[in-house]
Write a structure and sequence with these properties.
12 helices; 12 strands; globular; 8-stranded mixed sheet; 4-stranded antiparallel sheet; 31% helix; 23% strand; Rossmann fold; alpha/beta
């Protein structure tokens, strides 16, 4: 990635709000602001990690990118094309270029279909099937480390790790350029997690894929990601190179997330314990959404939302943070 490289995916001021309707006439009385003014870029061959607590909008962002949720406003530009401005007919060719791996491989695989039918369905739909379906299925199983003797089995006959490999095979079958991995390893055992993550990295390098890797596990995200975006209540609060975010976090929310991750062989960190629960996205706090749980919040935080800007000491746009007092907080980094 260079300063002048054009991003493969560019998200600009994206909002995905869900209406809250009540009464006999289904009158809209409010909105669940799942994604609230998000701007991001993903470059060719890059993995962007997206982290945050459950309910912060990570999955909705991923689903909006691939067209499974309808955006309220903003733009999603993929390879120079504004996906949100397209009709369903115009968007169809892009479906094979944008794929998604879901969190639960059991519920995302049709239990009535065989492995062969599952992983060659996309090939048939987009007229990409060369040779017999059995040959294509055997090739795809080999790509993800499974034996071709499994092509006539059903999803319930596999372990969780094997089912997720089937999900990966289905995603890569149509030769995509961009894959959203939505908590793709969170439901797996730790040893199996490592195998699937390594498989994703191998496929990324082999086929020059770009990944949006959604997870709440910072240790996994750091291993696979080139850059990390930290999301809280629908907004990006910090964004930068993976090592920079982990080793020099500027936002108090990022510091709290990192402090909760134990690192073998290193002294125990001072844990930053956040008070209270994540506020409802249907009624987010005014100003900085994080101020209700931030130990450093001041009056300015309660009245004015911070913008995502260069972190103190930087000016190249490689490390962005949305905090009024990021400079002071970094000087007294609570993760050390």
């Amino acid at each position: 990635m260079t300063e002048t490289e054009k991003p493969l995916l560019e998200i600009n001021k994206l909002h995905t709000w869900f209406p809250i309707q009540r009464g006999i006439m289904s009158r809209t009385v409010g909105h669940v602001k799942a994604v609230d003014d998000v701007t991001l870029k993903v470059f060719h061959g890059e993995t962007l990690g997206l982290v945050g607590e459950s309910g912060c909008g990570k999955t909705t962002l991923g689903r909006t990118i691939v067209g499974l949720e309808k955006a309220t406003s903003g733009s999603v530009t993929f390879d120079g094309h504004d996906l949100l401005a397209m009709s369903e007919r115009d968007f169809r060719p892009f479906r094979k270029r944008l794929q998604m791996i879901f969190q639960d491989p059991f519920s995302s695989l049709n239990p009535r279909m065989t492995v062969q039918e599952i992983i060659t369905e996309g090939l048939a739909q987009f007229s990409m099937l060369e040779g017999s379906p059995a040959e294509a299925a055997a090739r795809l199983l080999g790509e993800v480390g499974l034996d071709d003797q499994y092509i006539h089995r059903y999803p319930h006959e596999f372990s969780g790790g094997q089912r997720q490999r089937l999900s990966v095979a289905r995603a890569i079958s149509v030769q995509p350029q961009f894959i959203v991995c939505d908590e793709a390893v969170s439901a797996l055992d730790v040893s199996v997690q490592a195998q699937v993550v390594n498989l994703l990295m191998e496929l990324r390098d082999r086929y020059e894929l770009s990944l949006l890797f959604i997870s709440h596990d910072l240790s996994v995200v750091r291993h696979i990601s080139d850059r990390i975006a930290v999301m809280y209540l629908g907004r990006i609060v910090e964004y930068g190179q993976s090592d920079t975010i982990i080793e020099a976090p500027h936002h108090p929310y990022t510091q709290a997330l990192i402090s909760a991750v134990p690192v073998p062989g290193e002294p125990k960190k001072q844990r930053v314990v956040l008070q209270g629960d994540v506020p409802s996205p249907s009624a987010p706090p005014p100003g900085c959404h994080f101020h209700t749980r931030c130990p450093f919040a001041r009056d300015e935080c309660r009245g004015q939302a911070p913008v995502l800007a260069n972190a103190p000491g930087t000016s190249d746009g490689r490390h962005l943070v949305a905090c009024h007092f990021a400079d002071n907080l970094h000087k007294t980094d609570t993760t050390n």
